[in-house]
Amino acid sequence: MLWAIFAMMTSSVALALARSLSERREVVRAHDPNVTFYRDLLTEADEDVRSGLLASEDAVTTRAEIERRLLASLNSACEGRPHASRRGGERRGAAALAIVLMLPLVALASYLKVGAPSQPDMPIASRPSNGDFSLAAAVPDIHAGQAGANIAGLPPEQRSNAIRGMVAELAEKLSKDGHHLQGWLQLIRSYAALGERKKAEAAVASARAQLAGDEQASASVDELVRRLRLKE
């Protein structure tokens, strides 16, 4: 419930600012390609939440970043700054890549903090406190709210190593106990975001084997495979 309130607050503030910018400058048109691009990304994020591919708390961070870029685009258009079509396309492409990469990484950071692949699905408060039940034990300094900023501030090589290290840690945990749907979904998305489609497809096969018999879990995996356009 708290995350839903944060999401509503974030969206309300962003929409209010966008309306203010729009009223101050008549040059912003509804069919502006940048505006349409970011609105489409917001729609896709909402669809991921409804389909269960993205947790509500992860959606808060993702929507905030997309809305920040949308506001920046609106402000740029209001000020009448020139944008060559090629340069605009490159910027949109870079923004799309950043957002697409951020989505699984924010989710992964959150899972590293509170996930427990060795435990059945149940409220965190109901889980035993003893034993190695949490991935946070492996990466104790990562917190979901600051993981993205910490990783983004690293040099390219260190950032790549940090991301791959997080993914590898999750893969190792799931290899020991793979009866956890959210862990597999995070792993598959992370591999896809890193461009390692063969590993993503291998993770899909492992997830299906480990989750066999759970129709809802299998359906969630199948839906993610379709959205990422992985081989069946």
Poorly predicted regions are 1-7, 20-31, 81-86, 116-146
Number of structural domains: 2
Distance separating the two termini: 36 Å
Briefly note the CATH topology name of the largest domain: Serine Threonine Protein Phosphatase 5, Tetratricopeptide repeat
Total helix count? Answer: 9
Number of DSSP strand runs: 0
What CATH architecture of the largest domain would you give? Answer: Alpha Horseshoe
| CATH classification, class level of the largest domain | Mainly Alpha
Give the rounded overall mean pLDDT: 66
Rg, rounded, reads 19 Å
Query: Could you describe the largest sheet, including whether it forms a barrel?
Result: none
State the order of secondary-structure elements, H for helix, E for strand. HHHHHHHHH
* Structural class by helix and strand composition: mainly alpha
User: What proportion strand?
Assistant: under 5%
Helical amount among residues, as a percent range?
over 70%
Shape: globular
Signal peptide: 1-16
Organism: Bradyrhizobium zhanjiangense
Keywords: Membrane, Signal, Transmembrane, Transmembrane helix
Protein name: C-type cytochrome biogenesis protein CcmI
